[in-house]
Amino acid sequence: MKKKSEKDYDVEKGVFGFEVTTTEACNFRCKYCFEREHVPTEKVLTASIIQDRVEELFQADWFKNQYDGIKLILWGGEPMANYHLCKNLFNAFMHDKRVCFFIYTNGSYINKYIDILRDLKRKSFVKGTPKITIQVSYDGNPSHDKNRLDKEGKPTSKQVIHAIADLDAWGIDYGLKATMAWRDYHMLPECWMDYHELQKIWGDKIKMALTVDYYDVQFAKYKEQVTQALIEIARNEARFYMRHKRFLSNIFTANRAICATGKSMLCINTDGNVYNCHGSIYSSCSNDLKYTNIFSENFINSIEKANKFYKNNHIEPEECENCIANTCLRCNVKKYEESDKETFLEKWMDYSAQDELCEYYQLVGKIGAAMRSLIRE
């Protein structure tokens, strides 16, 4: 059989997200973490079962017709706390051009992985994107040091900044993810300015990818301070855009992407149970949302069935298609939890289930439209 060369891979085919919970343990105690009520178990998966399942997916005809590559996404807890599993996975797929890695991390264990990360970054992935990408959680101060504390209750911003500096120095592909609690939205302009200072140091690699707490939406309660913060950020972004021809944050960037859960990704917890995404693991409806187990003989068939179901059954109301919101966090897990619909599909696609979140993103859209008009002028 002729071996497939790198140029033979179809650029139109996708990359399948294979998300692995390496551990439920974490060395931080972030105040807004949606896992904070969960009691961690000591169970962990092995690299061998993950390696076997990845190879079986590559051999499945339905998978080969749709995907060229697999992105192994490491999630926790703090995923890099499980050094043994992470290292074994890195070594297992180090030379496999069909596999790349993405890691969510608080940055505290980065230095422990310096040698293997350097090796990984030199390897190739068939899609031409980096072999390894690391997303570091950094909220920007003062929010970060208020909410992201270690086990002793101490602020963690300094060690996170050191981790970012190390990644930059090593040439590892990285991004930063910020979370803003509704009660702290008045801090957003200061956090944005903190990112601005980092951008002066490390350049265009610094982008503020902001997410809100969509598990406990309190937009109505804090609407006034949210509005004022967004208006101030819009002014900052307009000035930044005029100089850099890009925005520093994603707040006003157009992104109506449909969530990939189910149709092009899966997530496995430490028990081996398979869900659509990591949000499903800690959902109050987690038992409804798991659909197979990594140790099941029907694992591959179950993944195929889920992939087909979610690809063929996307429903979006007309009012969503014509909405002023440029960005919309479409969390299907929260829709499912809060929906009063009857069938699984109706609950999963119930875009009307989070009115406050809709109002927030529409507000962002209106302010963003005014900002872009100002830039054009």
Tell me about this structure:
- The protein is α/β, with parallel strands linked by helices.
- The chain has a domain at about 15-180: Aldolase class I (TIM Barrel), CATH 3.20.20.70.
- About 40% of the residues lie in helices and about 15% in strands.
- The chain has 15 helices and 9 strands.
- The chain has helices spanning about 45-60, 60-65, 85-90, 115-120, 145, 155-170, 190-200, 225-245, 280, 285-290, 300-310, 320, 330-340, 345-350, 355-375; strands at about 15-20, 65-75, 100-105, 130-135, 175-180, 210, 265-270, 275, 290-295.
- A 9-stranded mixed beta sheet has the order 6-5-4-3-2-1-7-8-9.
- β2, α3 and β3 form a beta-alpha-beta unit.
- α1 packs parallel to α3 (about 85-90) and α8 (about 225-245) packs parallel to α15.
- The protein is globular, with a radius of gyration of 21 Å.
Spatial arrangement of strands, main beta sheet? 6-5-4-3-2-1-7-8-9
Q: Main sheet, how many strands, which sense, barrel?
A: 9 strands, mixed
> Which CATH-level-2 architecture of one domain?
Alpha-Beta Barrel
| Series of secondary-structure elements, N-terminal to C-terminal | EHHEHEHEHHEHEHEEHHEHHHHH
Our Rg estimate from Cα atoms comes to 21 Å
What layout of secondary structure does this protein have?
Elements: E1 14-21, H1 47-59, H2 61-66, E2 67-75, H3 83-92, E3 99-105, H4 114-121, E4 132-137, H5 143-147, H6 157-170, E5 173-180, H7 188-202, E6 208-212, H8 223-244, E7 265-268, E8 273-275, H9 278-281, H10 286-289, E9 292-293, H11 299-312, H12 318-321, H13 332-338, H14 344-348, H15 355-376
Parallel strand pairs: 1-2, 1-7, 2-3, 3-4, 4-5, 5-6
Antiparallel strand pairs: 7-8, 8-9
Helix pairs in contact: 1-3, 8-15
